[in-house]
Design brief:
It contains 8 helices and 7 strands. It has 260 residues and is α/β, with parallel strands linked by helices. It has 2 domains: 207 residues, NAD(P)-binding Rossmann-like Domain (Rossmann fold); 38 residues, no CATH class. The protein has a 7-stranded parallel β-sheet with strand order 3-2-1-4-5-6-7, with helices on both faces. Helix 1 links the parallel strand 1 and strand 2. Helix 4 runs parallel beside helix 5. The chain is globular and about 55 Å long. The chain binds nicotinamide-adenine-dinucleotide.
């Protein structure tokens, strides 16, 4: 058990990558908080983990709403006494050429990916400092934290920004034993990606099969999607690493799409 009784908040954990991370953390003994937009979806995910023998609670949290973020973190601290791990994972995707992005869509993307990371970090980090045990903050970046693709200007901008945030938090948190790192996955077949396949096919004027083979997986070493399990293993490493030796880093898990 690598996370026995550690209180771990995972945002966007009612679906996809976040749900898998929550499942792996629960398997490793953590007290897992499923934080997502809808309380019922968050609670249903938490109930499934509890039924499987884990410890989990669901909280409603729109990561762009400061009052909701603070209230949800306060609820967690009241129930479980602190916060040891934050996985800032909630995210969406909107794809357009830059000239077709509305300002509202641009701001929505930056709000969920960057404001959400800021607000959840700000709410959780005082509890990590106060406990004397330190903690681990993990931002869900992307290969798009390192590399650009057409149609994704706000996503690429936000995901690059998370690396700057993680490096800063790593420096500020170091003396308190708080580490901050970024996971940078390649394409993972979650609802977020399923939605993009027909959208990109239409925008680029190619078939859905070609979007998968010639756009999404073209640069991988083996034409394979990264899986939620792959990403969750990296999230477990960052959460359970025992010292500040691993901080301020970004780790790409992408079947070799991007190599650094
Ligand atoms: P997903 O759509 O399966 O899950 C995203 C979750 O975030 C959903 O449960 C949704 O309700 C929640 N969410 C959305 N807006 C929110 C908000 N304002 N507040 C709280 N929760 C909110 O998507 P996923 O693929 O699992 O994506 C998770 C993260 O992984 C995102 O940050 C995404 O950018 C990143 N990522 C995904 C891929 C991929 O290929 N799927 C690759 C690299 C990075």
């Amino acid at each position: 058990m690598k996370l026995q009784d550690k209180v771990c908040i995972v945002t966007g954990a009612a679906s996809g990558i976040g749900k898998e991370i929550a499942t792996v953390y629960a398997r490793e003994g953590a007290k897992v908080v499923i934080a997502d937009l809808a309380k019922d979806a968050a609670q249903a995910t938490a109930d499934a983990l509890t039924a499987a023998g884990g410890q989990a609670m669901g909280v409603a949290m729109d990561v762009t709403d400061e009052a909701q973020v603070n209230a949800a973190v306060a609820e967690v601290v009241a129930a479980w006494g602190g916060v040891d791990v934050l996985v800032s994972n909630a995210g969406i995707q909107i794809v357009h050429p830059i000239e077709e992005f509305s300002y509202a869509e641009w701001k929505k993307m930056l709000a969920i990916h960057l404001d959400g990371a800021f607000l959840t970090t700000k709410a959780c980090i005082p509890h990590m400092y106060r406990s004397g045990r330190g903690g681990s903050i993990i931002y869900m970046g992307s290969v798009h934290s390192k590399e650009a693709s057409v149609l994704k200007a706000p996503y690429v901008t936000a995901k690059h920004g998370l690396i700057g945030l993680a490096k800063t938090i790593a420096k500020e948190g170091g003396k308190h034993g708080v580490r901050a790192n970024v996971i940078c996955p390649g394409f993972v077949r979650t609802p977020l990606v399923e939605k993009q396949i027909p959208e990109q096919a239409q925008t680029l004027g190619i078939s859905e099969d070609d979007v998968v083979k010639k756009v999404m997986l073209k640069e991988t070493v083996d034409g394979e999607f990264t899986t939620t399990a792959d990403v969750a293993e990296v999230a477990l490493l960052f959460a359970s690493f025992p010292s500040n030796a691993l901080t301020g880093q970004s780790l790409v898990v992408s079947h070799g799409w991007f190599m650094q």
